[in-house]
Specification:
The complex is a heterodimer of chains A (336) and B (275). Chain A is mostly helical. Chain A has a single domain, classed as Orthogonal Bundle (ABC transporter involved in vitamin B12 uptake, BtuC), CATH 1.10.3470. In chain A, 77% of the residues lie in helices and 0% in strands. Chain B has two domains: 234 residues, P-loop containing nucleotide triphosphate hydrolases (Rossmann fold, 3-Layer(aba) Sandwich), CATH 3.40.50; 40 residues, no CATH class. Chain B is built from ten helices and twelve strands. In chain B, the strands form three sheets. In chain B, strands 6-7-8-3-9-10 form a six-stranded mixed beta sheet, sandwiched between helices. Chain B has a four-stranded antiparallel beta sheet with strand order 2-1-4-5, with helices on one face. Chain B has a two-stranded antiparallel ribbon with strand order 11-12. In chain B, strand 11 and strand 12 form a beta hairpin. In chain B, helix 4 packs across helix 5. Chain B is globular. Classes of the chains: A mainly alpha (336), B alpha/beta (275). The interface between A and B is medium-sized, with 25 and 35 residues. Chain A: It is found in: Cell membrane. Chain A: One of its GO terms (molecular function) is transmembrane transporter activity. Chain A: This is Iron complex transport system permease protein. Chain A: Its main location: membrane.
């Protein structure tokens, strides 16, 4: 099952991303044929917008495309960060949310919703602040111990996640009329996507992804254990510090724009590892493409499967991903 | 090569190492010996810099160890831990190849010279037949040899080994000891190795450093240092010299009946109970 030609795998997944994007742009409450999409794209690039197609243009460029791109960005951040966390903590259960960033963001969002800051920008800002608070707490406690080890960090993150989750429950219990808003925010989704969000999450995620790719060789060595990594010339504490910081910031931007989308950051790295092997130098870029593609596809399904009702994208990611993942695990175990 | 000065190390005010002073010379095979909990592994970790919360100084080639850049240090010394876990299913070859990390750039590919070195190192450690196998599927001894191979890939003039042969069979134990002995003689490599077997120390080590309760109690040439008298004081075990052949050097044999050992433990338990 392992793919030998890794470069081809990257090219093929890029191809898959483009196809899925075109399909995603075409389907929906009003169907836009693929040829129309290409025509509209051409018009934008050549600067001549046909006034007859104003509504197609609006649906395509103001609603569907930013949504697709934002979904891609979210997946392209969650999956490689998940891969990095699993290597860093040497733990297959690690995912982008183990650091408590998402639950910090949830508390921030819940506070904004409860206090009546309903503008999406306000909620995002509050969520981002919550995520930053969570990161600061981790750094304050996790890096302070005399003998540094990742287990302390991991446990600090888990304990904090639970604490923040109970704060969210508390906020819900005390503000019954806001239950819906808070729960829907926590489930995550891209229905409020805008180009402004694409830019404000796309830039930090791209920078972070680039850094993770540069550090991916170090992640390989770090996944061998702290003492071995030290012996091979890695600054263990500093590297962990930097990888976690960049990852946490990427996730903070994604989560504050689109809520907490589960499963992607846990499973896509595993599936990518089954396909390409454990070398993070391939795993980080490939899982970014695979994660982006997966979220884009799931979001397209979520909004088209039961028109006019939109399903929460987190449900779709888990419903499709979990059975597929178990099937892959079983197949792997039969082969070896 | 390495100079340790006035090294003290405590965990929660409990002294683990007490005023360690020693000079390790280039090109020698050093055996670190001592009973369980005497501080061998901790000393090794302090020497290579993994454990840094100690007082005193460790100098490597006339420069404090802490002043080395990480990459430069990894080209000077390597460390094989007592236990390690593979984590992810890299192939044995990928795993061993990671030993070249201190020489590679961020995006540099593996060079032909690296591949050549990897082949040679894996054949020296008898792991070549495992090259394509996942490290997660190796046996304990096979994994230990792959770890040794990765350390050798660093091509360092100084090698620290913490009980590296504990899971190897007799053949591979002597093969590995020969290999490190060979490196000392031909390349001038310095080896500092935690070893438990007195006869291995006698046969392979140039020097032995004997630890007890966190202090160096004896050091020097193995045949002069590891006498039955010293061993009884440090290990509470009676031994005697035994000839292994007409022209072979004698070895050490345990001479205390097992019942005596159990008796000693019972006495100790009573003493603890009385407190």
């Amino acid at each position: 099952m392992m793919i030998k030609n890794k470069r081809a795998a990257i090219v093929w997944s890029l191809f898959g991303v483009v196809i899925t994007a075109v399909v995603g742009a075409s389907v929906g409450a009003s169907h836009i044929p693929a040829i129309e999409i290409i025509k509209a794209m051409w018009n934008v690039f050549s600067g001549s917008v046909d006034p007859e197609d104003a509504s197609t243009h609006l649906i395509l460029f103001d609603i569907r495309l930013p949504r697709l791109v934002l979904a891609f960005i979210a997946g392209a951040a969650l999956a490689p960060v998940g891969a990095a966390m699993q290597a860093l903590f040497r733990n297959p259960m690690a995912d982008p949310y183990v650091m408590g960033v998402s639950s910090g963001a949830s508390v921030g969002a819940a506070i904004a919703i409860v206090t009546g800051i309903t503008a999406s920008f306000g909620i995002s800002l509050s969520a981002f602040t919550g995520a930053m608070v969570a990161i600061s707490i981790i750094y304050l406690f996790g890096f302070n111990s005399r003998r540094f080890d990742q287990r302390t960090l991991l446990l600090t993150g888990i304990a904090m996640s639970m604490m923040f989750a109970s704060v969210v429950s508390l906020l819900i219990a005390m503000n019954r009329n806001n239950v819906e808003g808070i729960i829907f925010w926590t489930m995550g989704g891209f229905n409020a996507a805008s180009w402004q969000q694409v830019v404000s999450t796309g830039i930090p995620v791209s920078v972070g992804l680039l850094l993770l790719m540069i550090w991916s060789g170090r992640l390989n060595v770090l996944s061998m254990g702290n003492d071995t990594a030290y012996s091979l010339g890695i600054a263990v504490k500093l590297t962990t510090f930097l990888v976690l910081l960049v990852s946490a910031l990427m996730i903070a931007f994604v989560v504050s724009a689109s809520g907490v989308i589960g499963f992607v950051g846990l499973i896509i790295p595993h599936v990518s590892r089954l396909l390409l092997g454990p070398d993070n130098r391939w795993l980080v870029p490939f899982s970014a493409l695979a994660g982006g593609w997966f979220v884009m596809m799931c979001d397209t399904l979520a909004r088209t499967i039961a028109i006019p009702v939109e399903l929460p994208v987190g449900c779709v990611t888990a419903c499709i991903g979990a059975p597929y993942f178990i099937w892959m695990l079983l197949r792997k175990n039969q082969n070896t | 090569m390495i100079t340790v000065k006035q090294l003290h190390y405590c965990i929660n005010d409990r002294p683990i190492l007490n005023n360690i002073n020693h000079v390790f010379e280039r090109g020698q095979f050093y055996a670190l010996a001592g009973p369980n909990g005497s501080g061998k592994s901790t000393l090794l970790k302090c020497l290579c810099g993994i454990e840094r919360h100690h007082t005193g100084e460790v100098w490597l080639n006339g420069q404090p160890l802490a002043e080395y850049a990480h990459r430069d240090r990894a080209r000077m010394q390597t460390y094989v831990p007592q236990q390690s876990h593979a984590g992810f299913d890299f192939s044995a070859r990928q795993f061993v190849m990671m030993g070249r990390y201190p020489y590679q750039g961020t995006f540099a590919a593996v060079t032909a010279a690296d591949r050549e070195l990897c082949h040679r190192t894996m054949s020296l450690t008898d792991t070549l037949h495992l090259a394509e196998q996942s490290v997660l599927t190796l046996s304990g001894g096979e994994y230990q040899r792959v770890v040794i191979a990765r350390a050798l890939m660093q091509q360092t003039p100084l090698i620290y080994l913490d009980e590296p042969f504990s899971q190897l069979d007799l053949f591979h134990q002597s093969a590995m000891l020969h290999l490190f002995r060979e490196l000392c003689v031909t390349q001038g490599t310095t080896v500092v190795c935690v070893l438990h077997d007195f006869n291995q120390i006698l046969a392979y080590a140039d020097r032995v450093v004997l630890l007890s309760n966190g202090a160096i109690v004896a050091h020097g040439e193995p045949y002069q240092t590891l006498t039955p008298k010293v061993i009884e004081q440090v290990y509470r075990v009676k031994t005697r010299w035994a000839s292994t052949g007409a022209d072979a050097l004698p070895g050490l044999l345990p001479a205390m009946p097992v019942t005596d050992t159990i008796g000693a433990l019972e006495k100790q338990a009573e003493a603890v109970g009385a407190k």
